[in-house]
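We modelled the chain as a single entity of 218 amino acids. Its sequence is:
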Amino acid sequence: MTAGPDHGVRLRHVLGLAGPALERSTAALWSRPGLERRYPAYLTAMHEIVRASVPLMETAALHCDRTSGSLRAYLRHHAREERGHDAWLLEDLAAAGEDPYAPGRTPPRPLVAALVGAQYYWIRHYHPACLLGYIAALESNAPAPLLAGRLAAATALPDAAFRTLRHHAHADTGHSAAVFDLLDRLRLTPPQVHAVTLSALHTVAALTDLFDTLGAIA
């Protein structure tokens, strides 16, 4: 195995190169007419993703071997940080005047299954460190700090409908720094580092497709 003092730096660079397409998709999501209908659809899609966050990290922690203690410790710690955020999204939906039980009655959209499901495959059939690419991609593309206020003004929805968005706008910068730092400390083989990068790029591509679909709601 090789120590990777620059694996996190390299992944940050790769995500920077892959970011413009996702940034354009996100900008269109929030700028087109029909925002008052798109925002509840966004909350529902985020719930479909976020409710898998803790199970993914718990699964990855279980698949860590005895040489992966720092990875296991990170996953367990981050799972504690993320626990309950899926419930926040349902509360946001309720505050927006939507049925908070509706997401549990409909199948998750295929784009979300493709985004999240790939992680279960890589964790179980290759290496649990793959999940770090997913986490890094999500948290490196956190909402802008001013977005919640802008959306509240544009939709006339109450501030309570933007709790999760506001939290992640402020928390994810620190979370992304933690995952890049961990990658610099882990002893991964070159193929494992490549797999982390594949996971990150897959996540960016799948998120772009999802936001393009949500952005088409008028």
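As a brief sanity check on the tokenised model: The mean pLDDT is 93. The longest strand covers residues 2-3.
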